[in-house]
Specification:
The structure is a single chain. The protein has 208 residues and is an alpha/beta fold. The chain folds into 2 domains: 30 residues; 159 residues, 3-Layer(aba) Sandwich (Rossmann fold), CATH 3.40.50.360. Strands 1, 2, 3, 4, 5, 6 and 7 form a 7-stranded mixed sheet that branches. The longest helix is centred in the first third of the chain and has 27 residues.
């Protein structure tokens, strides 16, 4: 008669399986919570003079992207487009609160990331504290996939901020494009589109 091997392990009990499953779920939930807090934290206050000497002035207000620098590149490309139409462009992070000449700009551009189908909290907080007095405003909404709900929220926020909305444009890093599913391609093509959008917005509002 065969003797049972001393290496044979007894079957795992249901209680132990349940405990392991609960531990794994707990780790996943904790990771999601930590990441959610990190991506919604205010970035350090920063102001950049991207282009100067233009007849009109635009201000970009953005919350930096957590990993891929998507918003940074999109807003920089939009600024280049504006400058090609003779605009001066400054850029600040949403945490830069002490801008004494905020109301002197001729156009405002708000760059927001999409987290959980909503604009990031720093952008939402910034927009609830301002009055744009019906000046032109653009929203650049970026995200890994679908951004429709975030676009709708940005429209509501800009309306409440008394903005004259020029356009709300969404850019997706991972959403399938007609040519490629690769994020690098979407990133580069989105930057090109943002430049053209800046040109169009600058040209349309140069004479106003």
């Amino acid at each position: 008669m065969d003797q049972p091997s001393i290496l044979t392990r007894p079957p795992m009990s249901f209680a132990k399986k349940k405990a392991i499953a609960i531990s794994i779920i707990g780790i996943i939930v904790l990771t999601i919570v930590i990441l959610s807090i990190l991506v919604e934290l205010e970035a350090p206050p920063q102001k950049e003079i991207l282009y100067s000497g233009g007849a009109k002035r635009a201000l970009i207000v953005f919350h930096p992207s957590w990993k891929y620098h998507f918003q940074e590149d999109l807003t920089a490309a939009f600024a280049r487009g504006l400058n090609s139409q003779g605009w001066s462009v400054d850029r600040i992070t949403t945490s830069f609160k002490m801008l004494s000449d905020f109301n002197t700009y001729d156009m405002y551009i708000f760059g927001t990331n999409t987290y959980y189908w909503s604009p990031d909290l720093p952008t939402k907080r910034f927009l609830t504290d301002i009055n744009l007095f019906q000046k032109p405003a653009v929203a650049i909404v970026s995200g890994p996939g679908y951004t429709e709900r975030a676009e709708e929220t940005m429209k509501e926020l800009l309306d409440k901020a008394n903005a004259s909305i020029v356009t709300i444009h969404a850019f997706s890093l991972f959403r399938p494009s007609e040519k490629s599913l690769m994020p690098d391609f979407n990133h580069l093509s989105s930057v090109d589109t943002a430049f053209l959008l800046g040109q169009e917005s600058g040209k349309r509002n140069s004479s106003e």
